[in-house]
Amino acid sequence: MAKTSDLMSRIEEKRDDLIALTQELIRIPTLNPPGENYREICEYLRARLEARGFTCQMIRAEGTPGDSDRYPRWNIVARTDGARPGDCVHFNSHTDVVEVGAGWTEDPFGGALKDGKIYGRGACDMKGGLAASIIAAEAFLECHPDFAGSIEISGTADEETGGYGGVAYLAEHGHYANVQHVIIPEPLQKDRICLGHRGVWWAEIETRGEIAHGSMPFLGDCAVRHMGAVIAEMEASLFPALSRKKTAMPVVPVGARSSTLNINSLHGGQAEPQPDFTGLPSACVPDHAKMIIDRRYLMEETKAEVEGEVRAVLDKVAAERETFRYDLNEIWSIEPTMAPKDAPVVTSVAQAIGDVLGREAEYVVSPGTYDQKHIDRIGKLDNCIAYGPGLLELAHKPDEYVGVDDMLDSAKVMALVLVDLLDPA
After folding, report:
1. Using alpha carbons only, how large is the chain's radius of gyration in Å?
2. What range(s) does the Peptidase M20 dimerisation domain occupy (predicted)?
3. Is the confidence at residue 424, as pLDDT, over 80?
4. What is the torsion angle, in degrees rounded to the nearest 10, for the CA atoms of residue 27, residue 399, residue 353 and residue 382?
C-alpha cells in the first residue's frame, strides 16, 4: 500500500512535466494528410525516452500508402527491460493529427493552458494520452526499478488515415510478437475501457451513361440520374433496414448500436472548375457519376452480407432502369473487433479505475476504427484495449482540448496497471 501511495504521489509531482510534455507534442504540427513532421516528433520522443533509460528504434514504413521522400512515414518504438523475466506491456499512441479546420478561438498548435485545459489540434486525440502514458511509465520506473518484464512506448504514424504506415507496418514486421498487453490511450474518457470497434466497409459505386448535348438530353443517358435512383432506393429500403439492426456490442454513442451508412462523397459530370476560371460550364449530359460509401457494421454481421445488401440495391435499380450500368469496388475493409472482458489487460485496467476513481469502469466499443484492428488482425493479439484521457466528442473539432486532471488520473490508472502486470519487487 505504501508503494502504491508513493507511486500516486510521484505522478502528482509530475503535473508540470505532464503539462509541458503535452504542450511540446501539440506544438509539433504532425498534420495528416499529408504526413508532416513525423520524424521531428519521433526524434523529440527519442531524446526524452533515451534520457530515461529506454532503447529506441526509429522505423520508417517504406512503401506504405503516403510514404515518400517528402513525407516519410516515421515511427518510434521505445523499450526498457526489467530486472527479471516477465510480460511486456506496450503503450501505443498515434502521433498524427487531422486538419485544423475553421472555427478555432485558440492557436491550434499553441498548446495554451487555460482553466486546467490544454488546447490544440491533437490535444485529446491523442497527444494527451501519449503524454499520460509516458508519465505513467516514468513514475513507475522511478518507484519500481526492479520490476519483471518490459515496458514499450510507441509513437506511430497515419492512424487518422488507416494506420498502414504505422501500427499495421509494425505488426507485419513482427513488432508485437513478444508483447502480451497493449493499451492504446485514445480519448474514450478516464473511467471507460474501450474493448474494440465496429467493422468498416468502404466502397465506390460508379454509374455510367452516354454523353450528349445538354439541349437534347434524350440523345444521351444521364449517369447522375442513375445515381439519383440508387440514392432513392437506399433511402427507401437500405437505410430503414440498417436502422433496424441492433448489436450487443456496447457501442457509444447509443445511435451507433445500429448499422450505419454514410455517403462520403458524390461526384458526377464535369469536374469542378479551377478557382481562377470565370467561364461557364459546357452543355453536356454526364456520362459518369461516382459515390463513395462508408458502411459501419456490427459483430452480428459479415462483410459478405454488408456487400450483398448494397449490391441488392444496385441490382434492383438495374431491373427497373433499362440502360442502368454500374461498377461496385471495395476501397478497404476492417472486421469488427472486441477484446473479451476477462482479458488480463481489461481486468487490470478495470481494477485500477476502481482504485483511482472510486467507481466501476464502464465498458464501451468505439463507433469507428482505430489501431486495435491491426494489433488484433495482423499482430494476432486480442489482449488489447483503448484507454485514455479526453472526450471523444472533442476529437477533430475546433478548440480541441484535454483536461490536465483527466491526464493525471489516467496516468495513475496506467501506472497501477504496470504494478499489477509487471510484478514489481
Report:
1. 24
2. 196-320
3. no
4. -70
